[in-house]
Give the backbone structure.
Amino acid sequence: MALVLTEEQTMLRDSARGLLADKAPVSHLRQLRDEQSPDGLSRALWQTFAEMGFAGLLVPEAFGGSGLGMVEAGVVMEEIGRNLTPSPFLATAVIAAAALTHGGSAAHQQAYLPAIAAGSLLATLAIDEGAKHRPLHTALQATRAGNGFRLSGSKALVIDGHLADLVIVAARSAGNPGDRDGLTLLLVDAKASGLTIERTAMLDYHNAARLEFDNVEVTSDSVLGELDHGAALLERVLNIGRVAVASELLGVAEGVFARTVAYLKERKQFGRLIGEFQALQHRAAHLYVEIEITRAAVLKAAQALDSDPERAAALVAVAKAKAGSTATLAVQEGVQMHGGMGMTDAFDIGFFMKRARVCQELFGDSNYHAEQLARLKGY
Amino acid sequence: MTDTSSDLDQFRRETRQWLEANCPPEMRRPIESDDEMFWGGRNPSYASEPQRLWFERMRDKGWTVPHWPRQYGGGGLDAERTKILRQEMAAISARQPLMSFGVSMLGPALLKYGTEAQKLEHLPKIARGEIRWCQGYSEPNAGSDLASLQTRAESDGDDFIINGQKIWTSYANYADWIFCLVRTDPTAKKHEGISFILFDMASPGVSTKPILLISGKSPFCETFFDNVRVPKANVVGTINRGWDVAKYLLQHERTMISGMGDRSGGRPLGLLAADSIGTDAQGRLDDPMLRAQIASFEIDEVALSCAAERAIDLAKAGQLHPAFSSAMKYYGTELNKRRHELLMAAGGIDALEWDSDRSQQGAKARAWLRTKANSIEGGTSEVMLGIVAKRILDLPGA
Ligand SMILES: Cc1cc2nc3c(=O)[nH]c(=O)nc-3n(C[C@H](O)[C@H](O)[C@H](O)COP(=O)(O)OP(=O)(O)OC[C@H]3O[C@@H](n4cnc5c(N)ncnc54)[C@H](O)[C@@H]3O)c2cc1C
Ligand SMILES: Cc1cc2nc3c(=O)[nH]c(=O)nc-3n(C[C@H](O)[C@H](O)[C@H](O)COP(=O)(O)OP(=O)(O)OC[C@H]3O[C@@H](n4cnc5c(N)ncnc54)[C@H](O)[C@@H]3O)c2cc1C
């Protein structure tokens, strides 16, 4: 498959780019922060997303979506990253939609996918428990009780947790933390009794929550995929999330890079534009190279998930690791090359640094994925 | 007169005993956030009673500035004894009792360039933490190119009348006095018309406006001068030769900033990471990549602290290159940024929270963001490397 966007994908990119630059540039995030928005995002914008077909991008056509793939989702995520737009797109339209599409029963799909495509249902995945992303260490207990399960434990960094109607929970139904067997994904109504959702103020001003499960009861038809053998589905969904976040990181890197290059052409010291100093020229050129290499790796991983998801793992690890380190470099160079200006809240550069930090942690940081790659390659 | 080693041993014993008796346990932990530092000033604010006690005891011995002469409020210690005091403080992780631009920046410049009257007026108040100083160097169009500064000082009898604007002035809104660079000869070449002048921030015509930082705090300001009248007697060094004073002061500032990340007394980074991530069956930090990065960081950290110690000894022996502070500033600040990147990786998800009590109001994240300024303030890393290339390596065109 050619590593270039098709005509349709390019059109999709242009329409996402136009919409976000117009309706949700960085000033949109700043405004949500400054007015301490209870939702942390714009629901009206989400409706527009739905009308333009973005909410149902991954939802099969049979359920009212467009049935597109990760390349298309990545294209939208990249624009989200470039504009730092807070949006349910990642948690609802990518991760939850993928989980339901690949793991849901016909009843699940009928119940939730059309609503996701219509923009009327928000959903999320609850996975992390400790300080770092360690999916196999899932400890949240699912204990059999009557015709279902009781859930107890806690989750952190649940994206849009305080807005979600539906939470997909990774739980341990058998075995011990660290085991691949014994994992189960469960669909939980956010209003279930015993479930406490605490919105956490994050450094990037994007939505996240901590969830406490205190004997939350769910029925047996809440199981998404296979009981006790949810690891494969979980990995597939996480890989989709990883490539989505890698695309967002690529966009973050591009957004901060564009601003930095513009500043090099504008700020004068010593009677010259600072872009005339070779010390800065070379670093900007290096960053350009890193970003282009990252772009290729991210696109390759997205194509692999669309065409051969079973064998995509190594490319996903490469994409997420590379995007994490490239975006980190981009935001660091961005602040440094802006001098004192880059340190001020009034300038947008800091917002990019903050978002990059959170995306780095989401679904495994560069170190996690380097370790995964080494394991996959057998060393 | 040379000391016998037994004199120094005795000084070490006495110092150790005195510190043991006088340094409160609360002051033997590394400073975690800016709020825990004591800055002195006309309206001093103490974060805690132990902080006040520790400051007052050190002040009364002259040990806020142990190496300054006694007549200027210092401890009158020679280089050997100053080093011993520093080592003994480090051994119990004792905090600096006073954070002060007076101590680390202005003091050394006054000792070298000040008149006797200026020294007697200002140094004891710095030593005793009575006056808090800020640094008026940078301007909107004079950052890395500091010598292009435009703030004007026009002669009016025995006074100068100062007009202009500074930016990034750290703690200007809390400072009592400012040491400031002003242009006294607009016709001279840019380095040759600058004077270094001191004045009270309460003077009519001085105003400040805090700037919000990406860490969510406002440690610096825009500072405006509107017809501020300052006696010519407040110029340090020769009129129009302020650049020499400014550069000399910068060397001290850079040495200070280079050491800002020194947390040698604190809990090792690898153990902090293990607290949050856990260990494997062999007791190793359960993140092999991060473990390797931390160990490699620590190698550089230890090497840097050896270099800092050696720089002091080289200076004493008259062998230190005057531009070496730029090399140290570059390395120390890049290292401190790395340290905080690693701390954020170690803290993981928990370190991403911003306002919760659980995260102490986002202390880790805010400290991490603040360190990004280390390689900008006091001269950027690019400027430091430029100085090394030019002054130490003597590269053409640098
Ligand atoms: C293995 C090998 C094979 C080669 N094969 C061929 C060949 O087939 N045909 C051919 O024509 N030539 C060939 N060359 C020559 C090659 O193109 C030159 O060596 C190269 O262009 C550098 O020129 P130079 O050796 O004069 O080094 P210089 O130009 O003197 O460079 C010395 C150093 O200064 C740096 N430098 C120079 N200018 C700048 C600048 N503006 N900014 C920053 N840094 C700078 C360089 O990067 C280098 O590190 C070959 C060289 C090598 C080593
Ligand atoms: C937290 C903080 C506290 C500060 N406190 C004070 C204070 O108390 N008092 C005070 O006077 N100032 C203070 N400063 C200001 C600081 O000294 C300046 O920000 C610094 O000198 C850089 O100037 P600038 O911000 O104008 O950046 P610029 O000079 O505009 O630099 C922009 C970028 O261009 C690069 N650059 C510039 N010239 C060259 C060159 N020749 N070659 C290669 N690269 C170059 C810089 O390295 C930087 O990456 C503070 C700054 C910060 C961030």
